[in-house]
Please model this.
Amino acid sequence: MTTALRSAPAAPFMVKPLTPLIGAELIGIDLAHVTPAEIGAVRAALLAHKVVFFRDQHIDRAQHIAFARAFGELEIHPATPRDQGEREVLRIAHGPDNRGVENAWHSDVTWRETPSLGSILRAIELPEVGGDTLFSDMGAAYEGLSEKMKVFICGLRAVHDIARVFAGRLGKQAEELHATYPPVEHPVVRTHPETGQRLIYVNTAFTSHIVGLSRKESDWLLAHLYEQAAIGDYQCRFRWAPGSIAFWDNRACQHYAASDYFPARRIMERVTVAGDRPFFTP
Ligand code: SIN
Model:
């Protein structure tokens, strides 16, 4: 007997939560032929569960892009080679010559003025074992803080900088990257534009410091906030299989790709839906 639940009476597929807080598998939907009603229901499930998963979806790049486009405009990542056919696709490929580097808690592209709404990640080639992706609920992380800490951090702003990760990865100087993507400020706690939930919005990959604090204070506070993502109670963990797809709400959760499969190969393709400017509503 299945424990699957429907998120709403009209949901045209089964919604099977992975944990009470975060993550749900959507069962009985074919991403090659989605209807507008299904797109609406996927969006509702994404808002409710922060990350949703699909199994046995053997779609191609064009279908991947078409599915993502149903949720909004698509981004082009600066790490995508200029001569790649479909520039909306970010290929994340690791193997014996390049160990996985996405094993740090982060939200995608918070160095943008308008970081993404969400990312849709498709498995292309997987190791026999390992390479799971973990997701952490930033609303639960905020709620778990003491009331005094919540008051202190609400209204603070932090700087996010592309160069922290991509200067090294793209072999560029920080100044060169900053000409196109200058460091940006975002609220430390953002209000979700659709659900109204408060969410911790700093991450180890891209946040450099909190505005108005000394370096020591900022480092201490950021370390404390980063630790919240690593609390097991706020997380779910997804084991990939051929045909698996994950779609996360980049505003509401952080993710961590376990890089335990080295030297095996793991190849993924990500299409990212553009978002809006983060804000905090007092
Ligand atoms: C990413 O960090 O966007 C990639 C996650 C993964 O490869 O599982």
Observations:
- The first strand starts at residue 14 and ends at 17.
- Residues 1-8 have pLDDT under 50 and may be disordered.
- Residues 92, 102, 108, 119, 121, 133, 255, 257, 268, 270 surround succinic acid (CB under 6 Å).
- The radius of gyration is 18 Å.
